[in-house]
Write a structure and sequence with these properties.
The protein is of the alpha/beta class and 369 residues long. The protein is 57% helix and 9% strand. The protein has 13 helices and 8 strands. It has helices at 9-48, 53-102, 127-134, 145-152, 171-176, 184-197, 199-216, 228-245, 262-273, 290-301, 325-329, 341-349, 358-368; strands at residues 3-4, 7-8, 109-113, 156-160, 179-182, 252-256, 277-283, 312-315. The strands form 2 sheets. Strands 5-4-3-6-7-8 form a 6-stranded parallel beta sheet. It has a two-stranded antiparallel ribbon with strand order 1-2. Helix 5 links the parallel strand 4 (156-160) and strand 5 (179-182). Helix 1 (9-48) crosses helix 7, helix 6 (184-197) packs across helix 8 (228-245) and helix 7 (199-216) packs across helix 8.
Length: 369
């Protein structure tokens, strides 16, 4: 088994390859859909505006150029933000390295989200309370144990799918509530520090895992995945960082409020293959597509650790949602609980999740039924 310490690199690489396939299938479907829209819009534009199809194609090419420029600007902005945040990143590294001693060696609760979609509320004073409110169930009749688990956690690691998290503007609030922001920038800095500080002990494992990723991140046909060298290095640094954040921690629990990004699925695969993981709970998005079900089924069946799939459970976003496949085989709790973090965020912003507001949620749930 290719591994870095106890990490199954082969399994994690297979999950990332499956994620690449999932994204390509989604892109094909979206491209075909937009192609039909473009075909209709070209003929419509020729009638209304008097333009030709060639002019429409030229306009489309200009739009693609603007998208490339925008992406370049986003990368440049991200690097600049990372440099500005460097003192905070280093301070948080120091805190993580001392967190186990300060919290009685208890494992953190890991919460995966994308701060571009789910974030903390401007008016809320407690980061931990805010995060707990995001996983409140849609009815009083449903189990509230996930929210209680978040509120009672000794410390929390928020695994943000973004390169630079939008939660950094709430740094003081997170620091006060023992909430660590683990975005791409933080994982990179921590991984590099592990590489440099342990060069002659475990640093070589990071280099070896990068080489393993570089070789294993290939399409089923054997062709290399585009950009696999930078991805291999980033994945190796992220694994080194997570191995530092969760060094042999028993009873690790994780709650996923997002999916289908490289950092998120790498963390999911790392947790599933780890013998120290107690549970991974996924709050589903929408009704769960056939493609997503195949991805999760392959992810849970491909790990070599016995009964690893039993640690991964699903919570529907919609009440009374008929589940299928892997979603149905691994329900969380009694299978009746529904959590919609986006509705919760909407209600938090309007003060509707304050004590005594459960009647509002009950009314809305009754309408849904």
């Amino acid at each position: 088994m290719l591994s870095t310490g106890d990490t199954d690199i082969r399994y994690i690489a297979s999950v990332l390859r499956a994620l690449d396939e999932l994204k390509r299938d989604a892109l094909k479907a979206e491209t075909a859909y937009f192609a039909r829209l473009m075909a209709s819009s070209r003929s419509l534009e020729a009638v209304i505006v008097g333009g030709s199809p060639d002019e429409a194609v030229e306009a489309s090419s200009g739009a693609r150029r603007r998208i490339r420029i925008r992406r370049l600007l986003e990368i440049t902005t991200g690097i600049t933000k990372g440099l500005v945040l460097l003192p905070f990143l280093l301070l948080q590294v120091w805190w993580v390295l001392h967190a186990r001693r300060r919290t009685g060696a208890q494992a953190p609760l890991v919460i995966a989200l994308a701060s571009s979609r789910l974030s903390l509320d401007e008016q809320e004073t407690s980061a931990k309370k805010n995060l707990a409110s995001l996983v409140r169930p849609m009815s009083q009749r449903m189990s509230d144990s996930l929210a209680e688990k978040v509120a009672a956690a000794s410390w929390i690691v928020v695994a943000d799918a973004l390169p630079v998290s939008r939660l950094w503007k709430y740094w003081r609030r997170c620091r006060r509530d023992d909430v660590v922001i683990a975005d791409g920038a933080f994982l990179t800095v921590l991984g590099l520090l592990v590489l440099v500080s342990s060069l002659w002990k475990s640093g070589w494992k990071t280099w070896r895992s990068a080489g393993d990723f570089h070789r294993l991140l290939k399409k089923p046909s054997g062709a290399p995945v585009e950009g696999r060298l930078p991805q291999s290095i980033c994945c190796s640094l992220a694994i080194a960082a997570w191995s530092t954040i969760l060094p042999g921690s028993d009873g690790v629990e994780a709650l996923f409020l997002t999916s289908n990004s490289t950092l998120t699925e790498l963390l999911r695969a790392y947790l599933i293959q780890s013998p120290n993981t107690q549970s991974v709970t996924e709050v589903m998005h929408g009704i769960g597509s056939l493609q997503a079900e195949r991805f999760f089924a392959g992810t849970l069946s491909g790990v070599g650790r016995p009964r690893a799939s039993q640690t991964h459970q699903f919570v529907p976003q919609v009440p009374d949602l008929p589940l299928f496949g892997a979603f149905r085989a691994n329900p969380w709790g009694d299978g009746r609980t529904a959590i919609n973090s986006y509705i919760n965020q909407y209600l938090i912003g309007r003060g509707c999740l304050a004590p005594g507001s459960d009647g509002f949620i009950e009314t809305e749930y009754g309408v849904l039924r």
